[in-house]
Design goal:
Cytidine Deaminase, domain 2, binds zinc ion, alpha/beta, single chain, 29% strand
């Protein structure tokens, strides 16, 4: 699995601007590339509430989750692991200082997985004449 660089940048920026509150969303992919983040409405501050908001989402077509740990400790909590198990195969946790190396992707069992960052050409940028 891969993630579009622009999507990762969006996640990092959103997590940074949400801090000290958590940022949370669902991941959606185009083929093999994660290209979209579905924002979770009404996410409140605090680890538990962000996770609970994700639990309450209907089963839309997503492949995983993303949320931030403003503390910078990117280890999944027990609530996170429960969420991972229910909500797809790819789960990103972003931590302070919210740069390109301060994120980790986990699978549904909480094992770290490698996510390749790729330049993805979004439809809007295509030159279709
Ligand atoms: Zn968490």
């Amino acid at each position: 699995m891969k993630i579009a660089k622009d999507t990762l940048m969006f996640i990092l920026e959103a997590s940074k601007s949400s801090a000290p509150d958590e940022f949370a969303g669902m991941l959606s992919a185009t083929g093999e590339v994660i290209t979209d983040v579905v924002l979770v409405p009404g996410t409140e501050s605090g680890e538990t509430s962000a996770v609970m908001q994700l639990f309450m989402l209907p089963n839309i077509s997503t492949i995983g989750t993303v949320h931030s740990h403003p503390s910078g400790n990117r280890r999944p909590s027990s609530e996170d692991l429960e969420l991972f198990d229910r909500k797809g195969m790819y789960h990103i946790i972003v931590g302070a200082p919210f740069n390109e190396s301060s994120w980790t992707c986990y699978d549904n069992k909480g094992e770290q997985v490698r996510l390749e960052v790729v330049d993805y050409k979004f439809k809007e940028e295509e030159d279709n004449w």
